[in-house]
């Protein structure tokens, strides 16, 4: 649509550009993951980097370079644990109410930090504070509240209980013993370790130098987070996630930023990175055929250069592993989930080894996969999954968003593997799932179905009540299936019954109740100022749009409630754009806002979010199926209470929805 676009290229130029951009499978050789790891490791010296000394204040998260042997005892002296009197236990034997023992007080009070001056001789006692040094001669402490002070000259104490030897004393070295190995090399220093180092007087500690890892992103489309997004732009999420993951793996990320697909510029940056850092990680442009800059550049930098390009993995096929004069240089695939997955599989272990950390321990759980998952033959496939707790153990749902998405990895609980020689994993298979991001915590309530912005309000109110929710956006039909299989507690749905024209009522069964949610106005979206739609009714605008071949619509996917409504409005007509069927309200709005279409159907809050005009057509009912056998759970009750709360209803209203009255669907 843009009139500012450059003049169209002639045919020869166009062909040259297509060839340059075309993805030719230019991998050196596609090898297995095991082979790739072995080849990479063979070229690297996977030992911790040299040690450096840091102050305790700078030691947090660092890795110990050597075992730490305690140089002193803690406590360094025998210490009183109470406020009271240091005594000789033998003097207290037989003391009781009938025959109290009387001890003469020595002329001092032992405070913390002041060594005692007097010996506790038989028949005497010395006043001592908690933490005071036990004086010579004493072998027990009695609590002040178990004594009576006899004020006289000299002052004495009256004792009515026998004290056992050692009572209320912490002996020297009982906490930390001089010569004991307090911490082992390879330990990551946290606040607890810092406490121990400080307790035995260590102000500095030897830690492994953190590997400096240069992080570069490549691609003309990339925009740094924080800057406005340009047309056809993509925020550089790989740079940010890789830098953070470098730090998590014990490295020191050095963010070089994003570079356009320009060989000279990128080569200069990579050369600088190799000088400044111990390791270089790039992402993007690994499989772009003639445009594959990173690959071309690495080949020029030194020996041995590229050692692996192409791994029989999904995600991760275009991964490129290189070594230049002992320094690893890696090009991760550009797709965000492929990039971070291959980072964890191939790069993080190298950073950990350089950083002195042991290999990361993988934790797995066995889970049932409720659906069949197709897989590409010849590539070992890793499928990212969300885990929910079913009646008979964990269930793993594929996140289903693909390698190009960021959330596939960032929101997954773990992943399962499908063998390279299998074309699918059958439904109901029991498989090991490797957990990501620590042990999976089972959420208090599982919500599966159609997503809506106002659902976040209810989930927020639930979380304020102390319950966690897992929301899996699987669409209304997916929610109905999950509710019927007992895989979720609550399924948000908006499905019209074509027979009755009513929403959701037909989905209730004896085991599944329908709880009303809210009404969302569906309507026609258009760009403000488009006179074909502006200031008209939906009926007028639709009639004229259908008569105007230049008015391009955007449809919705089959099965969506909005699609049912669209087909009803169109009454059998298929105007231009009918076959364009994205799967969400947001995609419809984005297509119109970006001039890829002129009109479509979506809900009102989404129109507002994209600054679009809105002509109301009909309210849609967004309700909740509640699995009755799970209704007694406190979290489910809390969800329903949150849904009805005045505050939640107010917030739902503010988003442009109309909360339904209880029992009205
Ligand atoms: N015809 C074929 N197309 C594709 C194939 C194929 O075999 N034949 N392979 C696919 C696979 S698998 C992957 S993985 C990707 C990898 O492509 P590249 O590594 O060359 O990456 P790009 O083309 O540069 O980018 C792909 C995609 O990722 C986005 N991207 C790139 N960098 C970043 C970043 N720093 N932050 C966020 N997003 C980023 C980029 O915008 C593209 O959308 O290729 C498939 N295609
Ligand atoms: O290898 Mo790509 O990484 O399948 O997504």
TrEMBL record:
Asked if the record carries the keyword Iron, the reply is no
Q: Which cofactor does it need?
A: Mg(2+)
Matches recorded under SUPFAM superfamilies: MoeA C-terminal domain-like, MoeA N-terminal region -like, Molybdenum cofactor biosynthesis proteins, Periplasmic binding protein-like II
**GO CC list:** cytoplasm
| Cited InterPro entries | MoaB/Mog-like_dom_sf, MoaB/Mog_dom, MoCF_biosynth_CS, MoeA-like, MoeA_C_domain_IV, MoeA_C_domain_IV_sf, MoeA_linker/N, MoeA_linker/N_sf
EC numbers: 2.10.1.1
Give the protein family: Belongs to the MoeA family.
Protein name stated in the entry: Molybdopterin molybdenumtransferase
Q: Which organism is it from?
A: Pseudolabrys taiwanensis
